[in-house]
Design goal:
- This protein has a single domain, classed as Tetracycline Repressor, domain 2.
- Helix content is 68%, strand content 0%.
- The protein is built from ten helices and no strands.
């Protein structure tokens, strides 16, 4: 009679994902995952060909997690790009290690998506915001998005280092002011 498998692929992936959230992606090694899952490394390599395959699965789970986070984030901004920016900055503040994996660090051995692909997602988040800006009269909404995104990404990265201490209300106001200034062409 064959022994029942108690360590599943889902358990291994959940363990590796939880480790990434808590400790950072660089700490996801076969030995550490096995220790955290309470098994040897054998079950890991029974279900994954190698660590690259597991790392890719963790990356994809993190990308999906970001999409869910964004879709559930409250929409309070009135100006285009502000809701996307608020969610992105909050994600950096609340999910530091996942943010670093997705938007900052080059992952070794993993098939990374571009920042645009991650932001746009399956729902077309960026395209939606660009269309809002165009509907509001912006003649070059893609250019406006790039200006806004440089600012938004900078604020998010500052939150990683503890150098960003604005409240959500202040951040929302700042993003809306930036949108108005950039849209009016004051900062070309």
């Amino acid at each position: 009679m064959a022994r029942k498998e108690t360590i599943t692929i889902e358990m291994i992936l959940e363990t590796a994902f939880a480790m990434t959230r808590e400790e950072g992606f660089s700490n996801v090694t076969a030995r550490k995952v096995a220790a955290k899952a309470g098994c040897s490394t054998q079950p890991i390599f029974r279900v994954y060909k190698n660590m690259d395959e597991l790392w890719n699965a963790v990356y994809e789970k993190a990308a999906s997690f970001f999409q869910d986070y964004y879709s559930l984030y409250p929409r309070m901004g009135k100006a285009p790009f502000t809701n996307l920016g608020m969610a992105y900055i909050a994600f950096a503040r609340e999910e530091k290690h996942l943010f670093e994996l997705l938007f900052v660090n080059e992952g070794s051995g993993i098939g990374k998506k571009s920042m645009y692909e991650l932001l746009n997602g399956k729902e077309g988040n960026v395209v939606y915001e660009i269309n809002l800006a165009k509907a509001a009269g912006c003649e070059e909404p893609q250019d406006l998005f790039m200006k806004m995104w440089i600012f938004i990404h900078g604020a998010a990265c500052m939150s990683l280092t503890g150098d960003y201490d604005l409240t959500d209300v202040q951040t929302q106001e700042l993003l809306e002011n930036c949108y108005r200034d950039f849209a009016s062409g004051n900062n070309r």
